[in-house]
Amino acid sequence: MTVAILNISWQTLADAGSLGGIYALMAVGIGLVFGVLRLVNFAYGQLIMAGAFALALASQWNWPVWAGIVFCFVVVIVLTGLMDRLVFRPLRGHSPASMLVATFAVAFLLENIAQLWFGSLGKIASSLAFLNQPVSIGGVEIRKITIAAVVVVAICLLLLFLLLERTTIGLHMRASSMDFETARLLGVRANRVIGVAVLISGALAAVVAVMLTVQNPVVTPDFALSDTIVVLAGVVVGGMNRPIPATLGGFTIGFASGLLGGALPTNQSQYVPTFLFVAVILVLLVRPRGLFDFTRTVERV
Question: Domain 10-286: which CATH class?
């Protein structure tokens, strides 16, 4: 099999950076919940799917673009809050396995509701299609969504960094991600920290829904499912125990996915997931704690 590795254009690099940024946001959303709850939320992709359907409905109803984006945020954040209130909080004292199974149940429930409501063919979100039009920068044609995604991702990550580093709730979230039980003993309000982390992850899911819907306007019940699986692998590769390593892992696997998808010929792009997951296995064999997790483990006596 001959692979055209050298078929890399500036547009391919820009798209890869854009996809890496979007996956980094997804990784942050997953990593925040894992940090405070030690829970991998497998329903995260369905939150993105719900936001994408909200955009599709707003497009069908001929709403303005800003109204559709606001509707997307409202739907995703409300669903996130309900998930925390009805699922995460009642099961908080149970085993991690029980909570993990609960997220699977929520994921399948939301997907089946979307299947019954919208059908297997889904809907089309066309109100943001203008962002797929190219603009010329230094003689290079780059899509508007690529530029917008890079800018939005940079702003979101900067705001999140300031929240974690400069605010009291951010300090509590970082302390909880290191040792939740000790943080509670020192006065950290568990429900408040968990609630804020879950809501921030929901807001990030809404941002991702907007970005992915522009790139793929056909919204189906399995929308963003494959992206979520790839991002989960990236989070594991980066290091799940800290937000920054998880973010870097999400960006790395997103950039690699976009680069391979753009560089390989069309008839070979189906092998991209295979290359990615083989690389994930190799990385974990060499660095089980994650590629970007440089913290040292202290042996307790």
Answer: mainly alpha
Q: What is the pLDDT of residue 165?
A: 81
Answer whether 43's CB lies under 8 Å from 198's CB. Answer: no
Query: Which of these, 93, 112, 117, 119, lies nearest to 39 by C-alpha position?
Result: 93
Ranges of beta strands (E only) in 118-184 are 123-124, 134-137, 140-143
pTM, two decimal places: 0.85
Asked whether the predicted pLDDT for residue 301 surpasses 60, the reply is no
Dist. CA 75–CA 181, nearest whole Å = 32
Q: What secondary structure does DSSP assign to 24-50, as a single string?
A: HHHHHHHHHHHHHH----TTHHHHHHH
Rounded to a whole number of angstroms, the CA Rg of the chain reads 19
Each residue of 191-209: pLDDT tens digit?
Answer: 777 778 888 899 999 999 9
Cα 137 to Cα 48, 142, 143, 225: the distances in Å are 31, 7, 10, 33
> Is 225 exposed, middle or buried (CB count within 10 Å of its CB: 0-12, 13-18, 19+)?
middle
